[in-house]
Amino acid sequence: MLPTSRLEAVNEMLSCVGEAPVNQLQNGYIESAIAENILDSVSRETQSSGWNFNTEDNWELTPDSNKHLVLPFNALKVDAVTQN
Question: What does pTM read for this prediction?
Answer without folding.
Answer: 0.60
